[in-house]
Amino acid sequence: MEATIEAHASGFREVILARRVWTPVDLEAANTNVVGGDINGGSFAIDRQLLFRPGLDWWRWGTPVKGLYLAGAAVPPGAGVHGACGDLAARQVLADQRRAGRLAAAAAMGTAMAALQATRRSR
Q1: Quick count: other Cβ atoms within 10 Å of Cβ 3?
Q2: What is residue 77's three-state secondary structure?
Q3: Tens digits of residue pLDDT in 58-90
């Protein structure tokens, strides 16, 4: 890795102050969620992707706990160095906020319509 970087950015090796090699055992010791040193959040088997991470597909990034969202490798599109899990969770948060506003507006409209109809009936 260093040789490849050095080939494109000469002098890179000279500015390295220290090195640390983390084995899978070291990774798991530092974070018990990294079972066996697997930083990708588990199996890439088809039954562990998309529909089944961590629950059914309809579950997506929200949880049954209001206001709690998941943005890690356990949710679609799964593990990898891409940031998509966080981006999609943030989009879900924003969509839920807009949905709440729309529901409130619809409820207010319904109340206003009911009051208008009551007024018309009383005439």
Answers
A1: 8
A2: coil
A3: 556 778 888 888 887 777 777 666 788 888 889
**Which pair of structure tokens corresponds to residue 47?**
């039954």
Q: Does pLDDT of 105 surpass 60?
A: yes
Instruction: Please list, residue by residue across 25-62, b when 16 or more beta carbons sit within 10 angstroms of its beta carbon and e when fewer do.
Output: eebbeeeeebeeebeebbeeeeebeeeebeeeeebbbb
**Separation between Cα atoms, residue 113 and residue 5, nearest integer Å:** 67
pLDDT one-digit tens code per residue, 94-104: 988 888 788 78
DSSP output for 90-123: HHHHHHHHHHHHHHHHHHHHHHHHHHHHHHHHH-
pTM for the full predicted model? 0.47
Q: Is 62 helix (H, G, I), strand (E, B) or coil?
A: strand
The yes-or-no verdict on residue 10 having pLDDT over 90 is: yes
Two tokens, residue 86: 């966080």
Domain locations in the chain? 59-123
